[in-house]
Fold:
Amino acid sequence: MATAVLTAGALLLTSCGDSDSGSSGDGKTLKLWHYEGPNSAMGQAWNEAIKEFKATHPGVKVEFEEKGFEQIQKTAPMVLNSSDAPDVMEYLKGNASAGLLSKQGLLTDLTQEAKARGWDKKLSASVRTTSVYDTNGVMGSGKWYGVPNYAEYTMVYYNKDLFKKYGIAEPKTFDELTAAMDKFVQNKITPLANAGAEYPAQQYLYQLALSKADRAWVDSYQLYKGKTDFHDPAWTYAAETFADWVKKGYIAKTSSSTKAEDAGVSFIQGKSPIFFSGSWWYGRFIDEVKFDWGTFLWPDTQLSPGSGGNIWVVPKGAKNKELAYDFIDITMSKKIQNLLGNKGGVPVAADASAITDPKSKTLIDNFNALSQRDGLAFYPDWPVPGYYDVLVSQTQKLITDSEKPDGYLDALQDAYDKGAPKQ
Structure:
């Protein structure tokens, strides 16, 4: 996700390595950063990978510093330019993040390692898109600068118990979804868990646009393979429908100031019957949700936000690059991939028969369905640096009705045109 990982609850990891003894490039220390919550599928898989690394590298210390997602996101360019750079770190994929760092010369070219270790063979084309960047930092072609070892996509999470209580069947069409939301509103329940201060709100809006779009539209917007017009039918429909949903009570006006964690918790607590968000919540919901719940892909559309997961990158200034490559390789192994799949993650190289958990099977089956129809449409904030903040602030205005759809689309067009490469 672009921003996808802002959720997962506990973004700070407690140290599970050794104290700082200074990486000197002697092959005796692996300095590692990642920001997955301990009970997320990724957090559990990476902790197991660390154990495996220690077992296969006797005498090598693993240093884990406590870092949060926001901390890494805001300080990466500065830290990676210093002697404090880790050997391997999880970083946000996409043009505005990993692409920008690769363009600035802050990341190691992994092309040879990807071929030698077979990482290139393990990733499908749509997942591989975010691994490679050209000289302008645009994803999709060029050199390998990162390796995603999980995938992610957005889906509709729904509270089966609440649906049953109000006599609502699982929606199979978009009309049935809106009818379900109407029924909840009639019963004084705000149907959608939402967060205007972070990514969920903009992802609702982007999904609405995608329901009227095609792959060429996505390529124009994300990869600059054409002109993006924010007043086209897809964007216009999305902005107008989103504003209408606020008026209808599907989305609470008070959600303009809430964060992704608040939205997720409102679903966990059974307050909001529907939450459209990413697979990064899946493991946590398995762990914490006490009612009967399920998921389905957004109905009546081929496209949904999704991509390869965040990527392992090796900073240009990393002192122990070989150890970093070894660690990445372990996270791509069948053992770790299968564990990831059974803990509620979306593995990229698991053995399908090894996934035994029923909910995990559903998660992976739905991802495969989306991936096989070339339905991964990345995330709305990816195209240009700083666009995430623009989308947050502008979508908040739609929620509070301090901006109309037309003005909202003008603001998006302006920010996009300023940041996108000149054609």
Summary: The chain has a mean pLDDT of 90. Residues 41-56 form the longest helix (16 residues).
